[in-house]
Design a protein that fits this description.
Blueprint lengths: L11 E6 L4 H11 L5 E5 L12 E4 L4 H11 L1 E7 L21 H10 L2 H14 L3 E3 L1 H4 L8 E2 L7 H19 L5 E5 L2 E5 L5 H13 L10 E4 L13 E2 L1 H9 L4 E5 L4 E2 L2 H10 L3 E5 L1 H5 L3
Parallel strand pairs: 1-2, 1-4, 2-3, 4-5, 9-11, 10-12, 11-13
Antiparallel strand pairs: 6-13, 7-8, 7-9
Length: 293
């Protein structure tokens, strides 16, 4: 359920911005709803121009400075948005007095935890500072994928088999806290998403296709799902125009995402792009996934 969009009687919203365009979409949507978002742009992650918003560039491990921003700006809600590709080094961790005792656990998580564990740790540290973490979908609910076809192209029987196979692989991968996506071609898994992200995985599939390691007669499908244990306030699976381009280059027939738990970015551009490339985009519901989990 979306939060009340009226900003009266509430503190200020902060957006902790990682890489990609999503943080800017969130900031613009929040502004359109009467918010005055403050942007904490993560150093070495976001390359966007934030000159239209009040902002500050800070390191991801600088909890002391981030907490100071919360106090100075009256922040009571925080959205984590965008990709974080670099984990902070131990020397970059700057705790507050409230989080000092948590530092050993923070370092252990950074060294050995998966992405989901790191995000849960970040949420815990932010909320220890007195702010409440909310999801991107609470600000822009219309970004969520709905059940069924999002464009004009429909999957055929072989595509549905690939969706089932890739979805089962994505569930297994998510349980290991490794990634959210998998590609199946001709009923077998050919790629799993790792720290490199979806676009790089699709580049790898395209290279395998060129090398003759994947059938050129069968197209295949990308499936992106939430990890079974994932906190829905951070890092929902997302697709956008670059995903369609990557799927086209990899020779795929389509993309399936989890309805209600995945974000569709740049929809007005992405769906016509998918239709033109003869690529289906579909939201699969939890009933379809229930047996796989």
């Amino acid at each position: 359920m979306a939060i009340d969009s009226r900003p009266e009687n509430r503190g200020r919203l902060a957006i902790i911005a990682g890489g990609g365009m999503l943080p800017h979409h969130v900031a613009e949507a929040a502004q359109a709803r009467g918010e005055k978002p403050y942007i904490i742009a993560l150093s070495n992650e976001t390359g966007l121009d934030w000159s239209d918003f009040e902002h500050q560039f800070l390191g991801i491990g600088n909890f002391k400075a981030i907490s100071a921003v919360f106090r100075a700006e009256g922040i009571d809600r925080v959205v984590l948005s965008g990709a974080v590709r670099r984990r902070p080094e131990w020397r970059d961790i700057k705790p507050t007095l409230k989080t000092l005792a948590k530092v050993p656990g923070v370092l252990k998580t950074l060294l050995s935890g998966g992405d989901d564990a790191v995000l849960k740790m970040a949420i815990e540290l932010i909320e220890a500072s007195g702010a409440r973490v909310i999801g991107v979908q609470d600000i822009i609910p219309e970004l969520l994928a709905e059940t069924g076809l999002l464009g004009a192209i429909e999957p055929d029987r072989d595509d549905w088999k690939d969706i089932e196979v890739a979805a089962a692989a994505a569930v297994a991968l998510g349980k290991l806290d490794v990634g959210q996506g998998a590609v199946a071609v001709g009923g077998r898994v050919v790629a799993l998403e790792g720290p490199e992200g979806t676009d790089a995985m699709l580049d790898r599939v395209a290279a395998l296709r060129t090398e003759g390691r994947i059938s050129t007669r069968r197209r295949g499908v990308l499936v992106k799902l939430c990890k079974p244990q994932q906190d829905l306030r951070a890092d929902l699976p997302s697709i956008g125009a670059s995903t369609i381009e990557g799927a086209r280059a990899a020779g795929l027939a389509g993309i399936a995402v989890e309805a209600g738990r995945a974000l569709v970015l740049e929809r007005s551009q992405m769906i016509p792009q998918a239709d033109e490339a003869d690529i289906f985009v579909i939201g699969i519901d939890r009933a379809f996934l229930r047996d796989l989990r």
